[in-house]
Design a protein that fits this description.
This protein is an alpha+beta fold. About 25% of the residues lie in helices and about 25% in strands. Dioxothiomolybdenum(VI) ion binds next to loops.
C-alpha cells in the first residue's frame, strides 16, 4: 500500500465534512452574544468626508454602535502587512482620517444585534463628501505624469536596443489587460471575539500565521495574544493572502462594544476593498535573425496601483517569466507603476505571469507568423538550456516534452497554418498554442506529528487548505511514512497556534509543508523507539538503532513485534511526538521553475458572432504530482479561470469619476458551465529532487499562465484578428465574416 499512496488519485479527506455541512467556514461561526456589523462604503473615489450624520441610523432597530474616523479606536501601523515575505504592502487601516482614496472604502461601520438590522441602519448613515477629481484608469494616471519605474525589479543583459536595430525580423506591439477581481465562492468574512486581551479571529485568510502577526501588531498585542482560525476556505485566488481593512474593522469594533462581532464583506465591495489584479499596459519588442532565433527581447510594462500608500505599492511583475523562458542574449524587462483611485491591488493567481505571458506569448505568436514558422517550432528553436537571467541550470525543465505530449494529444500536426482555413459547418476553427511558466518556491516550515495511544497519527501545521487539497496530501505523506491507512491519519491545519506554516500562496504550500511534515513524522518514530527501550517499555533491553518501525509496529532483530499503541500503553503514554523545522530550497545552485504548454481550439461562428473555446490540451511539468486527482483539478480550475481572463473578466470603472461600474455578478462575467470546453490535462510527473525530497514543485498557479494568449492565438488563426487587449469580447470580432 505505502508505495502507491503518494501520487495516488485520492479524493479529498475533508470532502465528506464539506459535503455534509460539517465543515465550518468563517462566517458559519455564531458565538453567544455575537453582534453583526455592516459597512458604509464610500460612494466617491477621491475626496474628503465633510460630515457623517448617524442620528437617524442610531435610532434604527437593534443598533449597538456606529464607528467612523472620529470615534474608532486607535490602531497601530505595521511596518509591513506581508510579514512572511518581507515585502511591503501596507494596507491602510480603517477609519484613520477623513480622506477617501477609492470608491468602496469603509467610511463607517454599524454594529447591531442582527445582520438585517445592521444593514438597514448602514443605509441610514448620511455621509457628506467633498469630491476631488479621481484618477480612474492607467491612461489617466500617466496623463497625470505619474510613472514610477521600479528599478529593483529590472533585468537587463546584452544590448537589446542595438540587436533590435540590426535584426532581420522585428515585432513591436502593445498589449493591455484590465482589472480582474478575485471571485472566490466564499466571501471575505471575520468573526472577531475578545476574551480579555486575547483576540480570536475566525477569519478568511490564506495565511493564519501571517494574519495573526499582523493583527497582533495592529492591536498592540504579542502574537500569542491572537489566535487566527481558518480550518476551511472557499478559495481565495490570492485575494485572501493579506489582511484587508474589513477584518481589522471587525476586531476593533468587537473590542469597543465588548461583544464578538461578525462582519461579512458584501459581494459588491469585494470588487473594491479586498484587492484585484491591476490593469496593465505592456510593450513587447522582439527581434530574430533570419532563422528565427531571438536576438532581442524587451518587455516594458506599466501596472496600476493604489494611491493609498505610495511607499509600499503593489507592483505587477509582468516581466518575471520573460527574463528566462526563452534563450536570448539581449534582453530587458522593466516595470513601472502609476497611481489610480482604486483599492490596493494584490496577487491574483499567478500574479505577473498571467498578465505578462498574455503579452509575451501573443508577441511570440505574432513573430512566428511574421517568420512563417509554426509557433511550436519557433518556441523549440528558442528553448533556453538554462536560466539565462541568473546564469543557473534549471533544476528540472521538461518543457519540450510538454510541447510534444500536448501537441500529440491535441493533433497539432493536422493544423493548416493558413488563417481561417479550418472549417466545421458554419464555424471557423482556430488552433493556437503557447508556453506556460511559473516560479517554484519553498520556504521554511515547522510541523508536529504524534503517534497517539488510540492508534491514530496526528499532524498539525499552521498552514491552511485553500481548497487545493493540502489536508489530503499531508495525510498521504504520513500514510506513506507510517504505513497506516488514511483513515488512521488526522490532519489539523488552519490554526495560528500550530507550528508556523506557510501562506497558501505562490504555489509553494505543497513544497514548503510536506518536507516539514515528513521530518516531524520521522522524529515521532524516533521518539516512539526511545519510549520503547525505557525500563518497563516494550523493548527494555534494546537499543533504538536495533528497532525497526514498519506498518505501525516496532520490531527487533529477534522478530519480536509490538504495535505502537502497545508501546505507548506499556509506559502509559498518550502520544509519541516529533516536531521539526525545515529550511527553504537552496536557490544558489539551481533555478526552480515549472513549465508547460497549452493547445487550444476555438470556434468562431461569424453568422451569429459566437466565439467559444471548444478544446484545451495542457501538459504541465511541475515536478511530482502528489495527488493526481487534486493536481489535475488545480490545472483544470486554472484553465477555466484563464478562459474567464481571455473572454469575459473585466472590472470596469467610470472614466469620469473612478467608480466601479460592474461590481456584481450580473455584469462581471465569469465562465459558467456552458462556457466549458473539453479539457485534457497531462501531468508530466517528473519528480524534481533538486527541490525537495518529494520532487513536488506546486501546481496552484501555473495552469492559468499562458492560457489567455493561447486563446488569443487561436482566435487569430480562426479570424485573422489579433486582439491585444483583454478580454476578447465579441465587439472586437464582430466585423469578421466568413
Ligand atoms: Mo496566489 S495569487 O499567491 O494565492
Amino acid at each position: 500500500m505505502s508505495e502507491m499512496i503518494i501520487g495516488a488519485a485520492k479524493p479529498r479527506i475533508d470532502g465528506p465534512a464539506k459535503l455534509t455541512g460539517q465543515a465550518r467556514y468563517s462566517s458559519d461561526n455564531n458565538l453567544t452574544g455575537m453582534a453583526h456589523a455592516y459597512g458604509v462604503f464610500s460612494t466617491i473615489a477621491h475626496g474628503k468626508i465633510i460630515n457623517i450624520d448617524t442620528s437617524l441610523a442610531k435610532q434604527s432597530l437593534g443598533v449597538i454602535d456606529i464607528f467612523h474616523h472620529d470615534n474608532f479606536p486607535d490602531l497601530y501601523h505595521t511596518p509591513s502587512m506581508m510579514e512572511q515575505e518581507n515585502k511591503v504592502e501596507e494596507i491602510r487601516l480603517p477609519f484613520e482620517d477623513n480622506h477617501i482614496y477609492y470608491a468602496g472604502q469603509f467610511v463607517a461601520l454599524v454594529v447591531a444585534d442582527t445582520f438585517e438590522n445592521a444593514r438597514a441602519a448602514a443605509y441610514k448613515v448620511r455621509v457628506d463628501y467633498q469630491a476631488y477629481s479621481a484618477i480612474a484608469n492607467l491612461e489617466q494616471g500617466l496623463e497625470h505624469g505619474d510613472l514610477q519605474m521600479q528599478e529593483k525589479t529590472q533585468h537587463s543583459r546584452g544590448n537589446p536596443e542595438q540587436a533590435y536595430q540590426t535584426a532581420k525580423h522585428t515585432i513591436d506591439a502593445t498589449y493591455r489587460t484590465p482589472v480582474e477581481t478575485h471571485n472566490p465562492m466564499e466571501m471575505h468574512a471575520t468573526v472577531a471575539a475578545w476574551q480579555g486581551d486575547h483576540l480570536t479571529m475566525y477569519d478568511t485568510t490564506q495565511g493564519v500565521v501571517n494574519a495573526r502577526n499582523v493583527y497582533a501588531k495592529v492591536f498592540g498585542l504579542s502574537p500569542d495574544q491572537v489566535t487566527v482560525l481558518t480550518p476551511f476556505l472557499g478559495s481565495g485566488f490570492g485575494g485572501k493572502l493579506w489582511p484587508w481593512p474589513n477584518a481589522i474593522a471587525a476586531a476593533g469594533a468587537a473590542r469597543a462594544v465588548g461583544q464578538s462581532v461578525k462582519l461579512v464583506v458584501p459581494r459588491q465591495e469585494m470588487f473594491t476593498t479586498t484587492g484585484h489584479r491591476p490593469e496593465t499596459r505592456q510593450r513587447l519588442r522582439l527581434a530574430t535573425n533570419e532563422d528565427g532565433k531571438l536576438v532581442s527581447v524587451r518587455h516594458d510594462s506599466i501596472s496600476t496601483t493604489s494611491v493609498i500608500n505610495k511607499t509600499g505599492s503593489y507592483v505587477e511583475l509582468c516581466g518575471g517569466m520573460t527574463k528566462a523562458l526563452y534563450s536570448c542574449q539581449n534582453l530587458s524587462v522593466t516595470h513601472g507603476i502609476t497611481y489610480v483611485n482604486r483599492g490596493t491591488p494584490t496577487s491574483m493567481r499567478a500574479p505577473g505571469a498571467a498578465s505578462g505571458l498574455f503579452a509575451l506569448e501573443s508577441a511570440m505568436d505574432e513573430m512566428a507568423n511574421t517568420l512563417g514558422m509554426d509557433p511550436l517550432e519557433f518556441r523549440l528553436l528558442n528553448y533556453a538550456n538554462q536560466d539565462e537571467s541568473q546564469d543557473l541550470p534549471w533544476s528540472s525543465n521538461h518543457i519540450r516534452d510538454a510541447y510534444a505530449q500536448a501537441a500529440e494529444q491535441f493533433g497539432w500536426a493536422k493544423r493548416n497554418a493558413k488563417v481561417g482555413s479550418m472549417h466545421d459547418g458554419n464555424e471557423i476553427i482556430g488552433w493556437g498554442m503557447d508556453s506556460c511558466n511559473w516560479e517554484a518556491i519553498q520556504y521554511g516550515c515547522d510541523a508536529r506529528v504524534a503517534f497517539r495511544e488510540d492508534g491514530t497519527v496526528f499532524a498539525s501545521c499552521g498552514t491552511q487548505d485553500i481548497g487545493t487539497g493540502t489536508y489530503t496530501i499531508v495525510a498521504q505523506v504520513l500514510s506513506d511514512l507510517t504505513g497506516l491507512p488514511l483513515d488512521k491519519i488526522e490532519v489539523q491545519l488552519g490554526d495560528s497556534s500550530y507550528p508556523s506554516g506557510p501562506i497558501s500562496g505562490g504555489s509553494w504550500a505543497t513544497a514548503t509543508t510536506l518536507p516539514a511534515i515528513a521530518k516531524a513524522g520521522r522524529k515521532a518514530i524516533e521518539t516512539l523507539k526511545k519510549y520503547a527501550i525505557l525500563s518497563g517499555g516494550s523493548f527494555p533491553k534494546a537499543k533504538t538503532e536495533d528497532l525497526i518501525y514498519e506498518h505501525g509496529q516496532l520490531s527487533d532483530k529477534k522478530g519480536k513485534t509490538v504495535h505502537f499503541m502497545e508501546v505507548l500503553k506499556a509506559r502509559r503514554l498518550a502520544s509519541a511526538e516529533g516536531e521539526a523545522h525545515t529550511n527553504g530550497a537552496h536557490t544558489d545552485k539551481f533555478s526552480f521553475r515549472s513549465f508547460g504548454a497549452h493547445f487550444v481550439e476555438v470556434r468562431w461562428d461569424p453568422g451569429i458572432s459566437r466565439l467559444r473555446v471548444s478544446r484545451v490540451v495542457s501538459a504541465i511539468d511541475a515536478g511530482r504530482a502528489m495527488n493526481k486527482l487534486t493536481s489535475r483539478n488545480q490545472i483544470e480550475g486554472s484553465i477555466v479561470m484563464g478562459i474567464g481572463m481571455a473572454l469575459f473578466e473585466q472590472t470596469e470603472y467610470d472614466p469620469r469619476d473612478g467608480r466601479p461600474v460592474n461590481n456584481n455578478f450580473a455584469e462581471y462575467l465569469v465562465p459558467v458551465h456552458a462556457d466549458q470546453p473539453e479539457i485534457d490535462v497531462i501531468l508530466l510527473d517528473y519528480p524534481d529532487y533538486n527541490f525537495n525530497e518529494f520532487g513536488a514543485r506546486g501546481l496552484g498557479e501555473i495552469g492559468i499562465t499562458g492560457i489567455a494568449a493561447a486563446i488569443a492565438n487561436a482566435v487569430f488563426h480562426a479570424t485573422g484578428k489579433r486582439i491585444r487587449e483583454l478580454p476578447i469580447t465579441l465587439d472586437k470580432l464582430m466585423d469578421i465574416v466568413a
